[in-house]
Amino acid sequence: MNPHHAKVSVVVIGYDDAAHVADAVRSALAQGPAVGEVIAVDDRSTDGSAELLDGLAAAEPRLRVIHRPANSGGCGSPRNDGIDAATGRYLMFLDSDDVLPPGAVDALLAAAEAHRVQVASGLCVRRELPSGREVPWERALYARPALISRPSRRLRLAHDTLCVNKLYRTDFLREHGIRFPEGRYPYEDFVFTARVLAAAPRIALVPETVYVWHVRRDADRLSISLDRAGIANWRARTEANRAAYEILLGAGEKELARAVHAKFLDHELRMYTRELELRTPEYRSDWWDLTRVYLSTFEAADFALNPAAPGRLVARVILARPAPCDLPRLKELAARPARLLPPYARDGDGTPVWSPDLPDVTLEHFLGRPAHLLPAAVDAELRPRARGTRLRLRLHELYGRMAEAGPASVDVEFVHREQRRVGLSGTAALVADRYGDSWSAETAVELSALGAGTWDLRLVVRFRDGTSREVSAHALGGPGLLRRRVVPDAHHGVLLVQPYRTHAGALGLRTASGWRGMTEVVSRRLRRLLH
Asked: Which of 30, 210, 218, 10 is nearest to 96 (CA)?
C-alpha cells in the first residue's frame, strides 16, 4: 500500500451489534487504499461484538479496536474516542448497523482534495430492511456537485444533520474543538453538525451515494430515530434542536440558526404530529406541553417566512390552544403532501380561519398562494367488488381557490410500497358537484393488474389553467369499508384485498394473490394474535 494514498480514518462505533458490525467494518476496509485505518470503538458490548472485532483485527492490519471500559449510553463518547485516536488526514464516521457503498471514500476524498475543503459531503440513502426500498436523504441538496465557500451561503445544510455522510479534515475538528456531546445524548449529531457549521468550513457537495443507513423497524432494539413511542424521545429531540440553534446563534450565524427552526417546523413537528393519534392521552398531553414551551422560544420571523407552510400552521394551532385539539385534522395537515380537511371557516369579516373557536389562527395566506401549492384535500373510497372495483374521489373547494384554478382531471397511480413501481395508472375527469363546493371523479381499478403487495395511492390534480398539484387521498370509511375482502379473479383465482388507512390518514391498499397468498396473510395474522 502506498502510504501517500492512505489518508482516511473510518471510525466505526457499536454496542451489542455482533450481527452487523463485521459487515460495517468490511465495507470500510473495502473502500481501498484511501482508507489507512479503520478504528472500531466497542462501547462495552456484552454479546460477543468485542471478541468478534478482535478476531477481525488479528487478520487485518488496518483495523484497530478500542474497548471502552464502561458503556457510555450513547453514540457521542465512542465517536470522540475515534477522533482522538485517528491518525488519518481525514475522518469519517460509520455506525455498526450501516455500510459504506463502494467508492464512497474515493468520491468524498477526491472532492476534498480537489477543492481543499474542510468538509466533503455526499448523499445518504435510507434502506428499509428487509424490503430493500431506498429513500434518499436531502436529495435536493446533493442534486449536483457544489462548492460552498461558507455554510451561510447554503442554508439547507442545516437540514442535513447527519454526521455519517461526510468526510472531515481531522485537524479542522481538533483545531476548533468540535466534538460530540458525551454520554447518553440522543440526537448528538444535531449538536455536532451545528458545531461544524459554526466553524464556517468550506464544504464540497457530491451527488454520489456515500452512506447506506439501514432502517430495521422490526429490530429487537430500535434505533433512536425509530424509537419515538416515549415522550423522552421528543424531549431529547427538542433539546438537541435548541442546542443546535444556540450554537449557531452564538457563532453569529443568525440565518443558519433560523434554518434549524425551519427544519424543526417542516420536518420534526410534522413527523411527530402525524403519529399523535397513535399515542396515549398522557403522551399527547405531555407532548403538547413540551411543544408549546419550545415553540414559544421562536421569533415571529421564524413563522413569517412562508406562513402558509403546513408546519408553521400546525405550530400556530398548537400555540393557540393549551391542550391537544383537532388531532385528526392536524395529522392530515402534517401529511406529505399536506391535506387541509374541511370545514373551512371564516371570521366575522370573511377572513379564512382555522376554526370558529380559533379565529386568531388565520388562513388568509391561502388567498394569494398559487393553487398548485395549496393543501388540497381529496377524499378517496375504494370498493372492491366481484363485478368490478371502483375508486371514488372527491376534491374539496378551498376558499374559492380550487374553482379559480378550474379542476379538470385527476391522474391516478397505485405505486408498490417497496419496489416503487407503478402497478396501475389512469386518468379520470373531475366533475363539479351540484352545490359547487367539490368535484368528483370515479374510475375502475383492475386489481388483477396489481398482483400481491402493499400499494400507495398517488394523485395529481390537473387544473384548466395548466397547473397541477400532487395530492394524497384522505381515506374515507370505517371498518365496513376498510376491511379485507375476497374477490374472484380470472388470473389468480382469488384476490385478498384490503383498503386501509395509513398513519397519516391516507388511503393505501394491500393485496394477496391466489390461495397461497391468502394462506400466508392469514397465517401471519394468526401469529401476531398468538404473540
From this structure: 10
